[in-house]
Amino acid sequence: MRFDFSTAGESHGPGEVALVHGVPAGLGLVAGDVNRDLARRQRGYGRGGRQKIEKDEIEFLGGVRHGYTLGSPIAMLVRNKDYANWEDRMSPEPPEKEPKKVTLPRPGHADLPGMQKYHFDDLRNVLERSSARETTARVAAGGIARKLLAEFGVEINSAVYRIGAVAMDKEAAALAAGKADESEVRCPDPEVTEKMKAEIDAARYARDALGGEFVVVAEGVPPGLGSYVDWRDKLDARLAHAVMSINAMKGVEVGMGFGVASRRSSEVQDEILLENGELVRSSNRAGGLEGGMTNGEPVVVSAAMKPISTIAKALRTVDLSTYEPARAFKERADSCAVMAAAVVGESMVAIVLADAMLEKFGGDNMTDLRAAYEAYTGRLRDEARAKGAGNGA
């Protein structure tokens, strides 16, 4: 079985649940391996009041014993502390008194199409699941994927390179992504960080919100993950799908992305060189992916996030209970959540790469998985060195 996951839970319900399948037996795993990224997801300049209430930590409900995975599904629960304030509105049991219905859909949110699709008369049934709170469970699943990948030297980082009109060079941000956690906005440039914070302050003062762009970088990924033989196996498409599924994402790029459209071929391709018996690239414009497969260079995926839909400056809408013009529903929200989205992006990239690793190397347990990985990477290394030596390299 390959790495897969599903989530359950509502924003103000009892908790968020992640169920992860396909993790080999024998992977060392403790709650702290996951909680680190849950804490990173909650940090960031411009976050809303919800982050002051919650302290996200997982509880293993199955699949882990004495610090090691069992090969069975791993179930994790993150309890919502705010549920205590919402139990009357979110209880699974029929209420004694019907709570007030929410009927003012927000432009840009799942509210209106969700109500139309599922035939609801209360958009709380939509917004509780469509909330970005669901990404808590994704980050929990991604923490396991990250731990699995780390066993093979894969490290994943991210950086924010744009918030609103303030930006730094994307390539420079990718190269310095390992330092992004030092910044309140996850931007590795201290000067740009301060400009981004000022941009967020201005939006908050205007009762508005900002989106932005971030880049995820996975280093140490072996060549040959994914495949060119079937459209469903192409790894760049799988990565784009996963990252685009994050709330509020409106664009995904791999490597140079849309920048390749304005360049000549000689300015886009990554030339292949032989150095010290190893095949290397002169650059990484393709973002580590060619023909739907990894090529041994860092995997680089970036995404554009729109501003969130819940803002104090409520936009025009229609009250679905009366079909009269109105102003959109408002609930507690962030002024900017791009830095949190970047951490979620890391998790989704980790999940796709972990799935591709298991697809390529198989193994019901870590011993067999390592043996297959070492045999493959050893063959590539030995072939390059032997043939390179024969050519005097």
Task: Describe the 3D structure.
The chain is of the alpha+beta class. It has a single domain (4-390), classed as Chorismate synthase AroC (Chorismate synthase, AroC fold, 4-Layer Sandwich), CATH 3.60.150.10. The protein is 34% helix and 20% strand. It is built from eleven helices and 17 strands. The strands form six sheets. The chain has a five-stranded antiparallel sheet with strand order 8-7-9-15-10. A four-stranded antiparallel sheet has the order 1-2-6-3, with helices on one face. Strands 4-5 form a two-stranded antiparallel ribbon. Helix 1 (31-42) crosses helix 6 and helix 6 crosses helix 10 (338-361). The longest helix is centred in the last third of the chain and has 25 residues, at 366-390. The two termini are 41 Å apart. The mean pLDDT is 94.
Please name the CATH architecture: 4-Layer Sandwich
**Strand order in the sheet with the most strands:** 8-7-9-15-10
Domain tally: 1
List segments where confidence is low: pLDDT < 50 over at least 5 consecutive residues.
none
Quick one: CATH class? Answer: Alpha Beta
How is the topology of this model organized?
Elements: E1 4-8, E2 15-21, H1 31-42, H2 50-53, E3 58-62, E4 64-65, E5 68-69, E6 74-79, H3 87-90, H4 111-118, H5 124-130, H6 135-150, E7 155-163, E8 166-167, H7 170-175, H8 190-205, E9 212-219, H9 235-244, E10 249-254, E11 272-275, E12 278-281, E13 289-290, E14 293-294, E15 299-305, E16 316-319, E17 324-327, H10 338-361, H11 366-390
Antiparallel strand pairs: 1-2, 2-6, 3-6, 4-5, 7-8, 7-9, 9-15, 10-15, 11-12, 13-14, 16-17
Helix pairs in contact: 1-6, 1-10, 6-10, 9-10
Subunit structure: Homotetramer.
GO molecular function: chorismate synthase activity; FMN binding
Region (Disordered): 88-114
